[in-house]
Amino acid sequence: MTTTVIDQAVQARLIASTPEARAIPACLRYEREDPFAVRVSFPPAASLDGAAVEWTFGRELLTAGLRTPAGSGDVLVWPCGPHRTVLEFHAPEGMAMVQFDTDDLRHFLSRSYALVPEGSESARLDLDHGLAALLREA
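Request: output the structure for the sequence above.
Response:
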């Protein structure tokens, strides 16, 4: 059976205004059917309101952010020394900064590029099927 989804559990650190960063679990997800996007989800215990949180953003953004500050708007990514990468998430409710082990992110990305090589993402999109489904819903 061919793999179509990559899920990778990682440990992250929530960077707070207090001197202590709080360790939180997270899950990185990549799906062949949505080849341009990656998702990171956090369990309810990691949020202030007790609800699970998921962010979706470009795989290319995550890749670029490992080398140099990248992004604008809701998601920013930048290297934080040789071993850590920061993801900053902005929402109407506020902002969160989460630090990841860069090697975990590189491993996740290498698995995603093995599943869908860079530059071949468009070939994975079934635009005719998506357009037909959209028209049926209208």
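The chain has a mean pLDDT of 87.
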